[in-house]
Amino acid sequence: MKIAVIGGGAAGFFAAIHASGPGRTVEIFEKSPKLLSKVKVSGGGRCNVTHRPLEISKLIKNYPRGGKFLKRVFHHFKSEDTIQWFEERGVALKEEADGRVFPKSDQSQSIINALQTEAEKLKIKISVSTGIRSIFTNADGFDLETDRGIIHADAVIVATGGHPKKDGYSFLSKLKHQLVSPIPSLFTFNTPQETIRKLMGLSVPNANVRLEGTKLSYQGPILITHWGISGPAVLKLSAFGADWMFEHDYKASAIINWNANFKEDQYTNHLKEYSIKHPNRKVENYPLFELPSRLWIHFLQRSEIDENLVYGNLSKKHINKLVQNLFCYNLTVEGKTTFKEEFVTAGGLPLHEINPDTMESIYYPNLYFAGEVLDIDGITGGFNFQAAWSTGFLAGKSTFKQKL
Question: H or E stretch including 94?
Fold first, then answer.
């Protein structure tokens, strides 16, 4: 039996590995010259391989699109299984405080080596720089039109990843499957007109950012960059707000509470209490609310508080303005920035055309899909890779046509 896996990324390798067995020939076709390129660059080169084990009901809440579908997929392979699989192959893993799981080596190469070693052990063929132009069905299976001619396969697993444009899926055009137009997910907010960009490199550990006019908000670290704001809170908000932001041409108002541990009245009360206890301290020299001093000075300037003013001389108007900047700082968003190597897309194969218990097409027996080619995307934290491992496992195993 010949099984063709289209795509040499995380889902493709995992699918190929689990489709391997006696009497089978499994071959991965990768259109670029590089394998596992997204694994290589993810997590700043460390590879956030998964997230700490969660109950499936909690795990699926981290997927803006595809959670209901993944609920069934995760019953077959979930975070615990991922951790066990890599550790059994000699990759020691560690869990960080926020739940992200990385190799202890802090090197994505550890994950790449494990996958490639397993593929080599199973004698999986790998063809790089071999793009698939079209997939044709026939009575005997499938014919793949490749850069080097027609290749026959008895079963096909499509794991090509996401594409920023719909024409990236043109190789599927001969099939009945429809496509959900791709849009970016996980992007930073560009704020070209905002002076806060001058503070690039500063971060706060626990802010809350929301999109004005929506119920969408997220809490977590925020990083100020030379183009605007980034960090986990912004990236997660962008994922859940991907459709809304796309519809609004990436123009929005982001409202930020710079320390999510404080409510508006708590900011006010704390400032008043501090002013009474330390009336002679210069406001500029004693930042409050665990904020970086340069960011604190920025808030003072926006609140029209003189740099030489002491806490005891803060007026009610000063305090009100400062609290407004701390609790509901308004940033004008005009555009986005995506990470070209790590981009995540919403869109792709619609999930109602795929069996979530097998990853098989509802139209074509022995045609399977896995990974980001599906209309699934997760927030940051290892969730996108977990979806890749789980759907790849299920697609590979299902080629045996056994009940899982």
Answer: strand 93-95
pLDDT tens, the chain, 404 aa long = 999 999 999 999 999 999 999 999 999 999 999 999 999 999 889 999 999 999 999 999 999 999 999 999 999 999 999 999 999 999 999 999 999 999 999 999 999 999 999 999 999 999 999 999 999 999 999 999 998 899 999 999 999 998 888 999 999 999 999 999 999 999 999 999 999 999 999 999 999 999 999 999 999 999 999 999 999 999 999 999 999 999 999 999 999 999 999 999 999 999 999 999 999 999 999 999 999 999 999 999 999 999 899 999 999 999 999 999 999 999 999 999 986 555 688 999 999 999 999 999 999 999 999 999 999 999 999 999 999 999 999 999 999 985 44
Tokens coding 17: 């590995």
DSSP reduced 3-state for 242: helix
Whether 185 contacts 345, CB under 8 Å: yes
Q: What are 83's strand-pairing partners?
A: none
Q: Are 372 and 162 in contact (CB under 8 A)?
A: yes
Angle between helices 108-121 and 37-45 (to 10 degrees): 150
Task: Give which of 79, 57, 67, 377 is closest to 236, Cα–Cα.
Answer: 377
Q: The tokens of 344 are what?
A: 């995540």
Phi, psi angle pair for 187, to nearest 5°: -140, 160
Domain locations along the chain: 2-184+341-398, 187-337
3-state secondary structure of 241: coil
pTM score, whole prediction: 0.90
Specify whether the CB–CB gap between 376 and 387 falls below 8 A: yes
Give the CATH H-level superfamily of domain 2-184+341-398. Answer: FAD/NAD(P)-binding domain (3.50.50.60)
Between CA 371 and CA 378, with CA 376 as vertex, the angle to 5 degrees is 100
Do the beta carbons of residue 60 and residue 67 sit within 8 Å?
Answer: yes
| Of residues 10, 14, 6, the one with CA closest to residue 30 | 6
With beta carbons less than 8 A apart as the criterion, state whether 52 and 46 touch.
no
Structure-token match 């590979």, residue found? 396
Task: Provide Rg for the chain, Cα atoms.
Answer: 25
Amino acid present at 237: L
